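Lecture 7 notes: from sequence to structure.
We start with the chain below.
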Amino acid sequence: MSLRNERVRKALMREISDIIFREIKDPQICAMVSITDVDVSSDNSAARVFYSVFGDEIAKEKTSKALERHTGQIRHEVGKRIRLRKTPSLLFIPDDSLEHGAKMTELINKIQRGEI
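Predicted structure tokens for the same chain:
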């Protein structure tokens, strides 16, 4: 990944997080959503935005649908905040790695305590 792409990736992560928390006023978006990573194409025309939701399946589903509904608005705001020739299209992808890591840590702790 080039230095430019890395800068764009970091800027997208920062700005998308800020937009979701400060600009989007949708009660369907869970308060415990976090942008975990952004994967930008080599020409900066597309970005896959990985997010994690801490909550039950209903909260995850509602957040997923709300992010899909607001993708255009988020992209528009990103375009105003980050000066690029072309604002990348955004694809939101759920990321359960944080939840998976927490479950693994819990299992390791149980093993250490002799509960398993």
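Points to note: The chain has four helices and three strands. Residues 92 and 102 are 22 Å apart (CA to CA).
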